[in-house]
Each structure stands twice: as C-alpha cells, then as structure tokens.
Amino acid sequence: MSAKSAAPAASTLIERTGIEIIPESDRTARPRDLFWPWFAANVSVFGMSYGSFVLGFGISFWQATLVSVIGIVVSFLLCGLIAIAGKRGSAPTMVLSRAAFGVHGQKVPGIVSWLTSIGWETFLAIMAVLATATVITQLGGDGKNIGLRIAATVIVAALIVTASVLGYHTIMKLQSVLTWVTGVVTVLYIALTIGHIDLGAVMALPSGSAGQVIGALVMVMTGFGLGWINIAADWSRYQKRTASDGAIVAWNTIGGSVAPVVLVVFGLLLAGSDEDLSAMIAYDPIGALATLLPVWVLIPFLLTAVLALVSGAVLGIYSSGLTLLSLGIRIPRPTAAAIDGVILTLGTIWVVFFAEDFLGPFQSFLITLGVPLASWAGILIADILRRRRDYDEAALFDPRGRYGSWDAISIGTMIVASLIGWGFVVNGFAEAAPWNNWQGYLLFLVGGRDGEWAFANLGVFFALVLSFLVTYVARAGRIRRQEETAR
C-alpha cells in the first residue's frame, strides 16, 4: 500500500482514501471540528442507561456520580492523547500504531481492534432495532411482529453502511447536524421525565466497598472512552500539521465527555428512583427509558434515539473498515466498510431473531477484548508521549524502514500484560457464556472469585497502566534512535 493518497479525499461524493497518508492539501480540519463527531456519537439517551449499570455495582449515588465523571473524562482524555498521532502522521490509528509494534507486528493488536469495533457497532445496531420494537408496542402496535423487526433491521443497517461507505466528509457533515437534533430531543426528554426522580430513594442508596467502586469506574471507562480509543486518530488525520496538540486533546475530551456526564448522572437519578425501570434497562435500555414518556413524544424520541445509535455505529464501522485494510487486505476503503456492514447486519439479525440471551455473552466478550485493547492503548500512549517528531510516513508502510517489521518489546508487553489482565477479570455471565469461564486465575491474590475485588475488572486497569509504564521506560532508547535517523 502506498504511503501517499492517490486522490484528494474531498474530490468525490465517496471518500476513496483508505489507509494512505492524507495529502497536505486535504489537511484543512481545525481542532474544534473534532467536537462534532465525538459529541454526536455520545449524546444518545442510551448514555442514561449507564446509570442503571453503575448502580448495579451496589454503590451510592454520590459514589456513582464520582466514578462516572472521572471515568468518562479520563477515558476520553486518553482518546485525545492518541488523536495527537493522527495529526502528526495523517494516517488511521492502526497504521500509526505500526511505529510502536512494527509494520507486521501491528496486525496482532489490529485483529483485537477490528473485533472490538465490529462488536460495538453491532451492539449499537441491535439497540436501535430493539428500541424501535418497544416504542412501536407503546404506540399500540405489535413490536414483536417479524415484518416490523425485519424492516427496522434493514433501515438501521442501511443508514449505517451508507454513511460509512460515503466516508469522512459525509460523516463529519452528518454528525454536525445530528448533534443539534439529538441534543434538543435529549433536553426535552430530561424535561419530561425529571418528575419521575425520587430524591429520597436516590439518597438512601447504601455506599459500596472500594472494590465495587473500582469495578464501576473500570466499567464506565470501558463503556465510554476506552470503547472508542482504537479509532481516536482516524478523526484527527485531516488536521493541519500546525494544529495544537493541546487543542486536539481538549476538543476530543470535551466533545466526548460533555454529553455523557450529564446523561449518566441523570440516568443515576432515574435508576436510583425506580428499581423496576433499572431492571428493564438491562434488557432493552432505550425502550425502557421510553416507557417514561407521554405518547405524543414517542415518535421523535424513537427517531432521535435510533439516529444517535446509528451515529455511533457509523464511526465504528468506518474505522473498522480502515482497520481491515491495515491488516493487509487490499480492497478499496468503501468495499471494506461494506464488508463490515454485512457482518454487522448478520450479527444484528442473529441476535434480534434467534439469540435467547444477548447482553450477557456480549458483555463477557467485550471485557475479554477490553484487556488486550487496554494494553495496546497503554503502549501507544507511551509511544506518542515519548516522540517529539512527526512520523516517517514511508516507514509506516515499509517493514524495512525505521519502525521495522516486528517490535518484540511492544508485542511481548502486550502478551504479558494481557495474560496478567485476564487473570484479574472474571466472567460475570458464567451460565450465559460458559466458554469464557477460564478467566480470573489470579484472583486468589486479591481474595478469590468470591471476594469484593472479583468483579472490579482490575485486569483492564492493570493492563493499561503496566503496558504504559513498561513501554515508557523500555522503548525510550529505541524511539530516540528512530527519531535521530530523521535528522
């Protein structure tokens, strides 16, 4: 794959640029432009459902509020740090990661990234279909009607795939519009449901242990910023080389965090007020939240909720297509996005029409991938913070270049950190996902599988921090020698 783009990215309706370096003439974006895709993808009312998920750890409202704010802001701050690489190298995240892992070595975390993106975008599509069925039922229709569900699946998948195939410029315009639409309806939702809050019940929630608090914190970080971290540089690669690193980090963090902080805190108030609502959210988050609304607002709520979920899925499928290309599959970018769209559609059909239990196995699958993804993030962030120069664009595509073919330190760090991390996470859905019961083999060090730390998902935190520290120290000399050859 050439390191240079064959044509300007904005010259046609469909973005043809794949994983190539963006030409200088097309790097016209400003840091504040990053606000729109991150805000639009995270302003969904689905964020309110995290209030139920967080309280499910058995912690108080104030503990839940603290971990939610910290988890959301810090996790999107980490996305902002990785976005710096996009400005410096004008290539997708998984191509820039070759500087840390080697041109061929990058395929190891690349596969993990691709699977994670496919999983998240399929999850969002499924939520959109289930929400449609629930709202139709509330309107007096038959939400379980097979024809209705097929139509909802087709429409949702078509919207996601079409936008992702059209590419960066269409998505940026789409997100700027969706930001206002979803923002207005979300404010309306809060205004109409604030009367359901019972402050007495919320404040009466008992405090949890340190293990429960840490578990909630890790879950929030994984569900928000860490869920996007493997695509963070994909949206900053069109930034001018003169753009401020600090501004890029700030706009990523603000765009990703501002809506979720408000939504999750409001979700905590709703879930803490109504145990039945909190239980319903576990199966159908958007549909459960819709039950609080009067009939007249259900249609705009449904349309906005679905569009917000579609917005998030579009970012995911666009980037998963780029990741597919970075693995060495030589097809056009639109084709890669379309292939991932087919996989998304098939996954949605399977869950909506055939699967008996979806949420449990899915969450178990994501926490399993979350450990190596956290390790990768720690390695890449350390690599970015150590570098002082722009990337060698040609070397990102040449295994004989300064970044080499395989970086033993990075790959070894990721393997060891993942093995340690998996030892400190446990499959919380043993009956629904028995294939994943092999984890947690190091929990005996912190009280065992029945101890208070068992469900804290410490492995994700350990993998992230350990990988960062090892890389920051062990690869310092190698990074310095790489940059010296550029003088």
From TrEMBL:
<feature type="transmembrane region" description="Helical">
    <location>
        <begin position="35"/>
        <end position="59"/>
    </location>
</feature>
<feature type="transmembrane region" description="Helical">
    <location>
        <begin position="281"/>
        <end position="299"/>
    </location>
</feature>
<protein>
    <submittedName>
        <fullName>Cytosine permease</fullName>
    </submittedName>
</protein>
<feature type="transmembrane region" description="Helical">
    <location>
        <begin position="209"/>
        <end position="229"/>
    </location>
</feature>
<keyword id="KW-0812">Transmembrane</keyword>
<dbReference type="InterPro" id="IPR026030">
    <property type="entry name" value="Pur-cyt_permease_Fcy2/21/22"/>
</dbReference>
<feature type="transmembrane region" description="Helical">
    <location>
        <begin position="453"/>
        <end position="474"/>
    </location>
</feature>
<feature type="transmembrane region" description="Helical">
    <location>
        <begin position="177"/>
        <end position="197"/>
    </location>
</feature>
<keyword id="KW-0813">Transport</keyword>
<comment type="similarity">
    <text>Belongs to the purine-cytosine permease (2.A.39) family.</text>
</comment>
<feature type="transmembrane region" description="Helical">
    <location>
        <begin position="337"/>
        <end position="355"/>
    </location>
</feature>
<feature type="transmembrane region" description="Helical">
    <location>
        <begin position="66"/>
        <end position="86"/>
    </location>
</feature>
<feature type="transmembrane region" description="Helical">
    <location>
        <begin position="111"/>
        <end position="136"/>
    </location>
</feature>
<feature type="transmembrane region" description="Helical">
    <location>
        <begin position="249"/>
        <end position="269"/>
    </location>
</feature>
<keyword id="KW-0472">Membrane</keyword>
<dbReference type="InterPro" id="IPR001248">
    <property type="entry name" value="Pur-cyt_permease"/>
</dbReference>
<dbReference type="Pfam" id="PF02133">
    <property type="entry name" value="Transp_cyt_pur"/>
</dbReference>
<keyword id="KW-1133">Transmembrane helix</keyword>
<feature type="transmembrane region" description="Helical">
    <location>
        <begin position="361"/>
        <end position="385"/>
    </location>
</feature>
<feature type="transmembrane region" description="Helical">
    <location>
        <begin position="406"/>
        <end position="425"/>
    </location>
</feature>
<feature type="transmembrane region" description="Helical">
    <location>
        <begin position="148"/>
        <end position="171"/>
    </location>
</feature>
<feature type="transmembrane region" description="Helical">
    <location>
        <begin position="305"/>
        <end position="325"/>
    </location>
</feature>
